[in-house]
Design brief:
Shape: globular
Distance between the termini: 58 Å
Order of helices and strands: HEEEEEEEEEEE
Number of helices: 1
Strand content: over 45%
Structural class: mainly beta
Largest sheet: 5 strands, mixed
Strand order of the largest sheet: 4-5-11-10-7
């Protein structure tokens, strides 16, 4: 078992040692440079300017959810008309958002998602427009630099937003 662990660590180190490229500098020896990677999984890299604080902020998966037919935990969120809902998920994933139900009960604010560099999160904002219940589903796949070995990791989260 110990030999396998040492072998796996050695392979990982050798793989990481091969990251980057070499570029020749005029009059000198080649030096390593970093490989360019996608910064994060958010749609926009800069937050919209002038946004006031949100009334309700939801960060990632909640333990207060209820199981659904597809095995996900649905987290309930209560919002009044005119209130702002801010949803935050890790920027280490490329996210897709889907709304079902009374989709007109929430109105999106700003771009699809933006990056909050202070917390390394993707942020979505909505306003409670009219009374109704909307299901919001996030599915995300882990971000991976080009030519790197990464786990095949995907996550899914569901929220049920009731606007009253």
């Amino acid at each position: 078992m110990r030999a396998r662990l040492i072998s796996a660590l050695l392979c990982a180190l050798l793989t990481l040692a091969g990251c980057g490229t070499l570029s020749a500098i005029s009059g000198g020896a080649p030096s390593p440079t970093a490989t360019a990677v996608t910064p994060n999984g958010c749609a926009v890299q800069q937050p919209p300017s002038g946004l006031p604080p949100a009334d309700v902020v939801v960060k990632g998966r909640s333990v207060n959810g209820t199981p659904t037919q597809n095995g996900l935990m649905t987290t309930p969120i209560a919002l009044r008309r005119g209130q702002t809902l801010e949803m935050r998920e890790s920027s280490n994933f490329r996210w897709q958002l889907r709304q079902t139900g009374a989709t007109g009960s929430l109105s999106a604010i700003g771009p699809a998602s933006w990056h909050d560099s202070a917390t390394s999160e993707c942020v979505w904002r909505f306003t409670g427009a009219v009374s109704g219940v909307t299901q919001i589903s996030f599915t995300g796949v882990v971000m991976c630099p080009p030519n790197a070995m990464c786990p095949a990791l995907a996550v899914a989260m569901e929220y049920e937003v009731t606007v009253s």
